[in-house]
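cache lookup: miss for this entity combination. No prior model stored, computing from scratch. Input as submitted by user K.M.:
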Amino acid sequence: MQHTLSVLVEDKAGVLARVSSLLARRGFNIHSLAVGPTAEAGMSRMTIVVEAPELEQVKKQLHKLINVVKITELDRERSVEREIMLVRISTTSGARSDVLEIGAIFKATVIDVGQSSITFQVTGTPAKLSDFFELVRAYGVIDMAKSGRIALSRENKARKLKAVGQ
Amino acid sequence: MPTISGAQALIKALEFEGVDVMFGLPGGAILPAYDPLYDSPINHILARHEQGAGHMASGYAWATGRVGVCMVTSGPGATNLVTALADALMDSVPMVAITGQVATTSVGNDAFQEAYTTGITMPCTKHNYFVTDANDLANVIHEAFYIARSGRPGPVLVDVPKDVLNAQIEWKDPTALDLPGYKPTVTPHPRRIKEAIRLIEQAERPVLYVGGGIIKAEASDELRQLVSAMNIPVVTTLMGRGVVADSHPLTLGMPGMHGTYTATTAIQKSDVLIALGVRFDDRVTGDPDFFAPEAMVIHADVDPAEIGKVREAEVPIVGDAKAVIEALIEEWGDRPAPERATWLEQLHRWQREKGLKYDQQPDGKIKPQFVIEELHRITGGNAIVVSGVGQHQMWASLHWGFEKPRTWINSGGLGTMGYAVPAAVGAKAGMPDELVWAIDGDGCFQMTSQELITAAVDGIPVKIALINNSQHGMVTQWQRLFYGGRLSASQLGVGAVDYVMLAEAMGCAGIRAETPGEVAPAIEKAMSINDRPVVVEFVVDRDEMVFPMVPAGGSNDIVLLGPEDL
């Protein structure tokens, strides 16, 4: 089962190695991992998608790392998650217009065009990316790269309304 | 403003933390730090191998309750320390290790004696640091000590490149800790305490299962109060021996693979298991699916990751053992102690009928259990006992009556052979007025005996009871029981080593006992020698096995009491 974790870490040398080493040592499989700065100076956010039967141990073990500040488990309903994918598709079969049409449906951006291929940038949920990929696959995918998932929890509406009520 | 070197700052930072003794071995990259140490009030003990320095720091920490400190050089110095760090992590020993590193300008270039120390030690330390600016040293050392001793204690490593040690800086006392991701939970949740007491109130066959966490939290006195207030029998794990006196009428001894029948079986039959500062280690639980099948579990630990890791707890409590026990006692209030007559009578019957046994014939070979019991009798039990790993460790744990915490030091989780001699040196260095006896096996002794040279030269008079059966005894036992007696690579050679001569060659006194009648005189002679370390070799019965025994991975319902049960 896949779980998405949003992990706030101190931006210190080796913190990525600590997190990935710990997950490997405890036998948790990393599906994707994306790291980048946050709005707060000195902090980074890791969005980790892990394969694990249950998440409690993963979270507890991660918490033991001194540089890990906060861990949030993101469920689909109460979070937004996006991924970016770059796909180069062969157009030698004369299907360029077909491919462009599919791209338009998915609001994909053409970022490179050549004699024999076209490269799209697609942004969206993992499901959208996977749908797009399946559709263009038949035309001949030359190469593909994905960013890994990044995610944030949605604003907690209940809490916000309560705050307004006070 | 006068400046000092990074090396001076490092030593000053150690002094600032109150370090009185440290253990180490110099070398190229760490050399700058050894120069200011020459003028420092810190007593440095020169180990003969870096692993020894690490175990010495561990023995010191166990005996004193303070953070053990060791310092070694880069590359092989650091890699030799890895075993001691992994050992300390498994047994939650507060330690700070300083390692030298090649200059920052050479890092990553495969320089002479370069190893990626922080990378290598990441999974075997609680935390580690790579210091790139000498101005950070005071704060890093301060944080390292705090992390090592707080929460669930553990080893912290600080890797310092040579150019950082040589840099000139202005000393500033460490500032307040800046650890946004590290806030151990000490105080337990009151609701959990209420739930725990509700379960204990209803319990008919409760058992306290307590371990090393009680020692780390210095909670032995509180635990004894709790035992009396609630009249609950106690089992003490290998790491927790002595937290309640073995002479206490409610103490059942050690549980698990080589535990007493009563301790192991009491857990199996319990209806409420109160686990404090323990981690349901596989050596205790056997097959976890069959462990304490009827019990509701209350599990308190300062490390939340231990709760529910092996066994789901009906009442999980995160908190420091002392705070948890105090809260439990307070919540119990002035309720009278339940009588539990049926349960206690059952346990006492098991103790009478299924107690430890061995057969020492007056004219037979020396039984190792007899050595332990004689040692206990002659010392009156007033000693810090340190052991290695294997048969001798189990015999020592089973047959020595422990009365106080911090009088039993051994390698539990990692099972590090060779732990005893250096850990004994560290314990004695920390507690020079205490009698320190290492009970070691010959396999273990051959791994780290050179640290006796350290003990002899630095005037640390430890005593070693060497249980010599000329073999890796536990390996041999398993080969006899589970591998058809095929003794593959487990035999060390009868008479292969003259341990008396070896001891004397290292500046120690050497004594040998070969018959049961020689055991007591040999111990008495050892007790009379206090100007140097003593090694007493006991040539014991090679066929003796450790019992009780639960075969590995089996259910704890089946406890073999002796060879006749096989």
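stored under new cache key. Chain B has a mean pLDDT of 97.
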